[in-house]
Amino acid sequence: MLTIAGHTLKSRLLVGTGKFSSAQVMREALEASGSEMVTVALRRVDLEDPADDIMRVLDRERFLFLPNTSGARDSDEAVRLARMARAAGGGDWLKLEVTPDPRTLLPDPVETLRATEILVADGFKVLPYINADPILALKLQDIGAAAVMPLGAPIGTNLGLLTRFQVRIIIEQARVPVIVDAGLGLPSHAAEAMEIGADAVLVNTAIAVAGDPVRMARAFALAVEAGREAYEAGAGRRLEMAEASSPETGLGFLR
Amino acid sequence: MRLICNGKTMTIRDGMSLEELIQELELNPDAVVAECDGRIARREEYATSILKDGMVVELIRFVGGG
Description:
The structure holds two protein chains of two kinds.
Chain A: E1 2-4, E2 7-9, E3 13-16, H1 23-33, E4 37-44, H2 54-57, E5 64-67, H3 75-90, E6 93-96, H4 109-121, E7 125-130, H5 134-142, E8 149-150, H6 164-173, E9 179-181, H7 187-195, E10 200-203, H8 205-208, H9 213-233
Parallel strand pairs in A: 3-4, 3-10, 4-5, 6-7, 7-8, 9-10
Antiparallel strand pairs in A: 1-2
Chain B: E1 2-5, E2 8-11, H1 18-24, E3 33-36, E4 39-41, E5 56-64
């Protein structure tokens, strides 16, 4: 069981709701993922084309909403988005994203720290999206972040756990859940993060843009479960040289 | 009377409430959050918030996102 800010979740897979080809595919993929926590974004209503409201598509009884502050370039914008999310009925949960550079979408650590401080004081359960920086992760948990969300690779890239070394250190030091977010492109990437002890992963693009998003969601669910089971089982040791798996005795009859 | 809603200049009748504006735009008032001149309006204030000339209104909603 995964507990974030006192809330318990059975599934360690969090899913994003962006980029799906239709509301129907998204709904089926979320179902197949077994996820209980999903991210949503806030945007201006297009008055020319007010598309279907995502709140009507998603069952709030089944999914805990984790609104994000995507699009925020500094702490002021992030705080404004956070307060709007709460006013829109998004609750107190918040995936804090501050990404000033649209090319890399890498998070701004200084502004993220500043916004976390403000939002924690304002009663939000803040889950900051961060670069895989162990020092920053410690500082964020010290000021009250509910979890930390280090990236595996830049958002939407599907490149995998490029930050493995740093994520290991973050996990080793963390007293709050570590959720590897962004860049995980395949179930094996998610399993790798879980095997080294991540508490959960958040996946969006890899599922939404897959050939069959529903099957890919299921594949991620299996991988996350397998990775967690392996972590809890404890990995066997590594050796530099071979060690026979079959008995080395009882071969006298051969020679 | 004119105001700016989601970046567009609009002409509305005097004394219109925020709730009426949202309904006129064929939006569900329960599914949008409104900000008037930078201040977030609480849902229960929509009906009593009377729009003013030159006001800047933002109507925001949840969409799919990571």
